[in-house]
């Protein structure tokens, strides 16, 4: 079923007018939902939205969860127990549910009123990755419930993002290799960004570096940097800083100015230089994380190569009981 | 003006019925607001709430911000520019504003319809620290707008928390010293907790360790730990784990079980053992962060002593321009 059709069905089949949209998942899938929640939190006049790690949602769901709620769930494997349980709780409360997964036999689909099996592996078709798909579903529902004044610009952005990302991936290949060579021996990174991008900042820290490379990483919001975290800055500590397109860009630029002066190991990834300004400025910032996910994936791939630590090696996940 | 009076005035003077409460601050003050937002997000059927770092709120305020909104601001010094600007934007949109500060001549007070100058320094009167005060204001408004079924239990909790915290602070003195002696040479910590406590997990990382000790620290939600971060676990990496009272406790216990097996440098701080279960279980979990803030402050004090790095030393904040 197409995303637009799912959105239409949700609205048509709702017993009560939708009032809340909850985004519920764990780890990398939760990361991918940050931007959809960010968009609704900033743009909607009527919809309440929430971003929950599955097990917190399971242990303590919001009291308002009910027939007027939509719960969007995502599990790449489709069998993440916490997310399946979150789906059960949502259903029991009367909410409508949508499950996103890569696995067409996923247990998650049993608790989902609607399901979307996404493709995976074609890195150049980011408009079909879970991040873009979930954001699109949020926008399609938002458009139908309330009307989104930048709806057509958003849809146009979706049509352009694949080309922008493909171009950006090519552009950063050499930089990513140089970064990996220079930073192969580091044990800790500070990852910084703002606005809609922050989900990917958190995600690059916990998934790409901690999970896939067993390296510690601190995710920091650019707007928070000068209120504590910046005191760790010195010439030895490596930073990765994203410069987003959009309303929070000046916050990232302020961090850059500081780091240029007091740090030395700085990798800056600039959405503007990478071509994201080809998307209409009313919506471009929501595509920052889509771009940064793909570009940062080139960095982690390069790092994994140089460190001879393949991205799929785990010591606990799927190896031991916990 | 008493918190109850401020709440009553807000409700009485509201041109439109309150629909949103936003918590806006930076760094340590933002940390202190996490629990108030968490409480409303979970308990309220009608109020939308949001937790924003000031400069993100300034650059991109939610579109719904208006006469039906309440914006609660906090700046310890009272002169945090980003938070003052957030107050101006809230006022311009027609929202009501409350400013919390320690400084009675604070610039923040100029953009605040209501102000609360809190005391500071009496570590044993936590019911009057900004965290408890802001949560109390949120509860008092919530009670008046919608009714909070655990209101009287919450008020009773406020009466008990000072005694519990004082007792807990005494209890952890020796442990904090032992922790500081054992961990004085570490450069990176993972800080873990869940639920209402997570604000303090983030705060201990960015303020107590990064800002005050120039040590890197990764804040991790217990519910997220097994979805990425746990792959960094080994016997060399130091962990600080809070076991909260309440609905998310089992998530913390799951982390403890894992760490007991695969890590060695583990400091566990248990709200139950420290007496938080003296508060009615319907509201006890909201007092976790109040307890943990005070208890963790003993740990940071001990660490600062052993490391001979006083808590008020800065190299950038107030020293250089940025």
UniProtKB/TrEMBL annotation, chains A, B:
Q: Name one Pfam family in it.
A: SIS
PROSITE patterns per the UniProt record, alphabetical: SIS
Q: Where is the SIS domain?
A: 10-147
Q: Which UniProt keywords apply?
A: Carbohydrate metabolism, Hydrolase, Isomerase
Q: E.C. number, please?
A: 3.5.-.-
Sequence intervals crossing the membrane: none
* The keyword Transport appears for this protein: no
Q: Name one GO molecular function term.
A: isomerase activity
**Gene Ontology BP terms:** fructose 6-phosphate metabolic process; protein N-linked glycosylation; UDP-N-acetylglucosamine metabolic process
Q: Which residues form the signal peptide?
A: none
**Function of the molecule:** Catalyzes the conversion of a range of fructosamine 6-phosphates to glucose 6-phosphate and a free amino acid.
Q: How does it assemble?
A: Homooctamer.
Q: What is this protein called?
A: Fructosamine deglycase
| Organism this protein belongs to | Liquorilactobacillus ghanensis DSM 18630
Starting at the broadest rank, the lineage of the source organism is: Bacteria, Bacillati, Bacillota, Bacilli, Lactobacillales
